[in-house]
Amino acid sequence: MSSASKHWGSFSLPSLLRHALNLLLFTLSSASLVPILLLQTPPTPFGWAFLAVSLASIFSSLLGLFSHASLLRFLSHALLSASALVGQALGLLSLLLHPEPCLRLLGQANGSRNAKALEKTQAGALAGMLALEAVSIVWAFAEQRCREGEHDVVEKEKRVTARRRSGRVAIELEGSVESADGGSRGEGDGREDEKKRTKGDFVLVITS
């Protein structure tokens, strides 16, 4: 196992930071459901839009808690995080730039003090979610790039090892072939010597 895989392992510092980041995002996204539900229950269509953004952020944080070992899991997390990020940005801009119309759309036409406080709380939650979601996306891409680099290194090491093994096998085969050839030549020479001795003995017998 290479140093990169140890660096991004299940109990490494980057992995623990990723878990802490997504747990914080999950907590903040869950808390952002409360102001919308307190403004009006059941929520208005505009309130349901805010709830959908919070739910998307919750699901993206849950996906971010797991390692992106597969490309499909990484793409699902990136797509859901990007959708949540766009929704958070639009919701935050609407609450900051048009607070009074947003209160009316959320079911608080009178604009009471409590309603304004809940609106500011929701805006703060969206701002925090937006920052954490952006960091989560950047972190996910960095981790995926590191894993791709680690995979390339492992593949290169496998190719080098395979070449070394094939070279060793070729050398061993060549040595065995040479030894076999030497043995066959030695055996042939022995047979020729034996034939010569046999012929010499036959000649001696005849002459005697």
From TrEMBL:
Keywords (A to Z) from UniProt: Membrane, Transmembrane, Transmembrane helix
The transmembrane residues are 21-40, 46-66, 78-97
Give the Basic and acidic residues compositional bias ranges. 184-200
Q: Where is this region: Disordered?
A: 173-200
Looking up PANTHER family in the UniProt record yields: MEMBRANE LIPOPROTEIN (PTHR39113:SF1), MEMBRANE LIPOPROTEIN-RELATED (PTHR39113)
Name of this chain's protein: Uncharacterized protein
